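Protocol step 4 of 5: obtain the predicted structure for the target chain.
Materials: sequence only (see below). No template structures provided, no constraints applied. The aim of this step is simply to have a reference model before the mutagenesis design in step 5. Sequence pasted as it appears in the construct record:
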Amino acid sequence: MSILKQFESLSQSLEGSLLYDTLNKILYATDASAYRIMPEAVALPKTTEDIVKLMHFAKEHTISLTPRTAGTSLAGQTVGSGIVVDVSKHFTAIVSFDKEKKTVTVQPGVIRDELNLFLKPHGLFFGPNTSTSSRCMIGGMVGNNSSGTTSIRYGVTRDKIVEIKAVLSDGSQVVFSELSSAAFIEKTKGDSLENAIYRKLYEELSVAATQEEIKKEFPKPEIHRRNTGYAVDILLKSDLFSGNEPTINVGKLLCGSEGTLAFTTEVTLKVDDLPPTNNVMVVAHFHSIQESLEAVVTAMKHHLYTCEMMDDTILNCTKTNREQAKNRFFIQGDPKAVIMMEVGSYLSMEDAEAQANALIADLQLHNFGYALPKIYGSDIDKINELRKAGLGLLGSIVGDDKAADSIEDTAVELSDLPNYIADFSAMMARHGQEAIYYAHAGAGEIHLRPVLNLKTKEGVYQFRNIATEVAVLVKKYRGSLSGEHGDGIVRGEFLPFMIGDKNYELLKRIKLAFDPYSVLNMGKIVNALKMDENLRFEPGRVEPEIQTIQDFSDSMGILRLAEKCNGSGDCRKPASAGGTLCPSYRATKNEKDTTRARANALREYLTKSEKDNKFNHKELYEVFELCVSCKACASECPSNVDVAALKSEFLYQYQKANGYSI
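Step 4 output (structure tokens):
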């Protein structure tokens, strides 16, 4: 039976949908990373039984399932050559809530900010706060062990895991939760795949030499934000494995596993009391990156709730973004970098003010910062929105040189940060590069991005070469190559070097125990795909010359306007997040009705790649047909992707060329 017939049969058995037309496969071939892999199909399951059927199908036909929520992953975790399984449309329920225990159970498609809207009337919130919190979903946060701006005070997603319900690779359904040591041992007995998993973990991690190898090679335990393979170092805290904790939760191992061990269907999370409402933000302005990072070590001696950085490249991008230009009111002079530090008090505004003044006095004592303004009230929210827009704003850089995410997630111990960045900056200077610096300075994690042209062979060479040198540098400080965005394709290849061959072989054996049928998100974490292959652009391609009736010169042409979309998914934010982007997606919850899909589809169409079967202009029209030309994307999309202009140009050109109206 042909694969199309098999897909037809599978589709008829699902309550949800199975899409295997060229257009939808192209729309799911990319996420927010540099990668592009055409799937064979896209599934939108409605029920857990649908996922079980997909798992059985994958096992029978030796095809990989790639779990996906909002597709905002930066390391290529949510692209794959098998079936991409998108749970963002139907798995969106808040299942239960226990105010007394401060726990909430959700399906993986629940948006982080919408969960917090539900929790707010109860005086609670889910702490991890990514820059994509208006559209990222809990399943993705679990898969990547996300953390964001608040980790210095509230921890990372792994810290919040109470229980995970999941489907294993044989289709069986399991629950991973906190167990006593005796209960864990009991789980090792039996013939199920679940029993085999517990048995394998016990056999492997009970070996003293293995424990020592993990402690020696994994990142420093003081680095709380870290995704380095599977979190076996966390399991060593159990008294089963020479630790001192009487309980153990394998669900914490799944957190950060990028859907390679099991398919999550429900997550129970611990939640926290709402942060204080008496807040002051101090925005320190610096003449150099190095000075700003040295200041962080001093600042973190204070009781900060956030400590975030932005460099001048991102700040300059805000000047041309209509939505964010109004949020840069706090800038004084022309800083090379700013650090945004927030203090808060449950007692009074006077107490918060005193904390801010003490912070400023300490920075001034050490001669850090040429301006130290204090920000209050709703203005703090505006600055936080500006910081969150940082990733998307990088897409607005005009031309083919873009901020590449090959090395953008490194984390080191806070005391090592100034020396690490000094070494990094010297290395970048040797490459003739001036990187972009932003994000979580207070946690020892700076998102670092070289500016590269991945359309050229030289750019791709630098992509790998810089990534390799940075891996060596991070290992020197015993840091983590990924602080929060995951290993994925871009970093998975470096895991044997980062944790040592023995530990890497251990991870491979754990993967095999969970996934003996090789069906769960293959090519990620272990046996990872090459980091410089399967890229969104074909290196060395000849750029097409496209004549247009509209003037797209401010973006260097219509193709480069479409290419401004980096996949960060701002167009998927719900109405509760404010603004109007994107009304068609809000109505349908279909990926093809997002600004991202429209930009990606047009980009694919215009480049006429020979790698895959191309769709025709009538199929392309499907992504434009519900666009109401409201131009919300032109003002609210951080990359300023004006889909209304793209749509009108497309319609004009094809009516002119073919002599008919669509």
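Step 4 remarks: The two ends are 36 Å apart (CA to CA). The longest helix spans residues 457-476.
Proceed to step 5.
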